Amino acid sequence: MPEHSVKHYCGLFGIWGHPDAARLTQLGLYAQQHRGQESAGICSTDGSTLKRHVGLGLVDEALSAHSIERLRNPVAIGHVRYSTTGSNTIQNSQPLKFSFSGGDVAVAHNGNLVNAALLRQQYESQGHIFQTTSDTEVIIHLLAKPETRDHSNPIAHVLENLQGAYCLLLMFPDRMLAIRDPLGFRPMCLGKMANGAHVVASETCAFDLVDAKFVRDIEPGEILTISDDGLSSQRFGDESNRRQAACIFEMIYFADPSSDMFGQNVHIVRERMGARLAQEAAVEADLVIPVPNCARCAAIGYANESGIPLGRGFTTSHYSKRSFIMPSQASRDLAVKMKLNVIKQAVRGKRLIVVEDSVVRGTTTQGKMGALRKAGAKEIHLRVASPPIRHACFFGIDFPDPKKLIANNRAVEEIRDFLEVDSLHYLSLEGMLDCVDRSTGGYCTACFSGSYPLNVTEPFEKFALERRQLPLFPQKSC
């Protein structure tokens, strides 16, 4: 588990054509709980009416057995959320459900729309009323515009107005749409169950839990429609510019190691990164230990390549939430203390290579290194299986302020001194890219390189849609 104040995106799951669709959706969300732990929700349809239930907390807290029974229908979509735009409130919990002149629609979204604030300002100036502070709601307002309803291809028309990263599940009473943005920032895949039901998820690990077989990835710039008539696909966006910008942070940290993503297995990629790190930053030591849980794959690769034994320096509690999605630094620090405890007898007197997948703010990493030193570690050599994070992300990872990044405008030696370790080495950008399969397209490395695949003219801050709101009828002072 990294020290991050970084937060994740969200997880999507949808199923068409199974009598127990809501329960299976609940399982699919549970399998993707690592993608968001603030809220969860499901919307289902019987072909004429949409039913929705959302709640705050983990899947088993937000979705009770009673709510799942109430949602029993052959079609359902679900969402687990970390709020990268807007606060963690029940109003912002997804799937969002709306009624407009075109009928009922539910939407679940993974990613960030960088032009959401501008679109919302335009609509509010025209008298539109928004019910949430989520960037996702602008999609509904686009869909409800008269010119959209009159368009020959309404969905494609809506999507061509969006800028940023998005995977979407849209559910109408008679069809479900799975959509991936033209640059393919976020992962999304199609599966099939033994009874013929079609399944869509953010990660393939969700298919394993519901006994579905992976069919293929949803392609960048694809609208896949699923209905009782089967599957149909269309493309949107600029067909002459089919470059890809898959988020490489998925491979480094966010995705479940068992998932296959962007054409490769996550665990294998992380092992390669650890092995490449050992090649780039060899050092004499007695033991390789990971910072659990996500650095374990990279630590295996490092140990195998270096020949230095792999050991365990921390114990972990399985009953604590992941610290990277905690809302404040104090709660993140407490979560780390509750989750990680040093095994003193394993590290005392040892020269340690500590493998971490990434370092964002550095504050809780500093605490972990201090705990190892206090336990009697002789030397601490920190090895990070990704390059230094120096730049903001506007596409769904919650570190939009570069001033809060420890590597921003700091040399590696300065970071080493702050973390109080004997040596520090990051995986090079070239080394990282050599570990992934680039035959199917490119990767977004903006947080490392500063090279953005989209121009962000107005940096978008998480609470921007809330801070700009004023009371409709201000109270007069007495």
Question: What does this protein look like?
Answer:
The structure is a single chain. The chain is of the alpha+beta class and 478 residues long. The chain has 2 domains: 10-243, 4-Layer Sandwich (Glutamine Phosphoribosylpyrophosphate, subunit 1, domain 1), CATH 3.60.20; 260-449, Rossmann fold (3-Layer(aba) Sandwich), CATH 3.40.50.2020. Helix content is 29%, strand content 23%. It starts with 9 loop residues before the first strand and ends in an 11-residue tail after the last helix. 52% of the residues are buried.
As laid out across the biggest beta sheet, the strand order is: 3-2-4-1-10-9-11
Q: Structurally, how many domains make up the residues?
A: 2
Quickly count the helices: 18
> What proportion of the residues form beta strands (DSSP E)?
15-25%
Could you say what the CATH topology of the largest domain is called?
Glutamine Phosphoribosylpyrophosphate, subunit 1, domain 1
Proportion of residues in helical segments: 25-40%
Beginning-to-end CA distance, first to last residue: 53 Å
Sheet with the most strands, sense and barrel status:
7 strands, antiparallel
CATH class of the largest domain, named Alpha Beta
Low-confidence stretches: 1-7, 462-467, 469-478
- Determine the structural class based on helices, strands and strand pairing: alpha+beta
For this structure, what is the CATH homologous superfamily of the largest domain? Aminohydrolase, N-terminal nucleophile (Ntn) domain
The multimeric state of the shown protein is single chain
Average residue-wise pLDDT: 89
Rg over C-alpha atoms, rounded to the nearest angstrom: 23 Å
